[in-house]
Known about the structure:
The chain is built from nine helices and seven strands; from the N terminus they run βαβαβαβαβαβαααβα. By secondary structure, it is of the alpha/beta class. The protein has a seven-stranded parallel beta sheet, sandwiched between helices. The longest helix has 29 residues, at 98-126. 46% of the residues are buried.
Amino acid sequence: MHALAxxxxxxxxxxxxxxxxxxxxxxxxxxxxxxxDVHEDGLKSVNxxxxxxxxxxxxxxxxxxATARAIAAVPGPVDxxxxxAAILRPEPLEAVSLTTFRSTMDVGxxxxxxxxxxxxxxxxxxxxxxxxxxxxxxxxxxxxxTAYCAAKHxxxxxxxxxxxxxxxxxxxxxxxxPGKAMHTPMSEQNYPPxxxxxxxxxxxxxxxxVHIATARDMALSGQRLNAWDLSQEHPL
Length: 236
């Protein structure tokens, strides 16, 4: 039996980059996938690659109402949430508009809150995994990333609180950083040449997510994990 054959998994930001790579690997492991992204074409491309078996939901997670409607369209209880969607627009503080700041925060942390709260009651019954994709921007500050760093730092704290609340119900909550420079549409726009020279394909990081979703090792809950290291320890 495939490792994820009995799991419904929601992946945000699944139309490209890391989210798409995780979706393709999870599909191969038998997961019942619900894929969310603001880009309909990207979702269709990913779903076509996995044989059209996923539920795809085009949604702007910066919009709380749209996010609530997307959640309502999820077909049943969720076992694993992978919140990967994010916005990164590098700008100095003086150039950051309130609209950009709000949308970055809303996709990063507001959507994380809405999704987690919606799936929490069923997870309290059967356990579950909440996996929040973080980055170095959730650990330290970077110039020209005031909105993005704020969103990722908030996600780190949010996950720690959920780990504490979920422990008695076997709900694992963790953040995870790539651990390596990734080749994604975001990194194509924002990485300097020295990082582009060493980036890897995001599919190489997907085994870490499979391990978290399948092992449900509560020792990982509340932790910030490294996807590269975990993928090396638990290859598919």
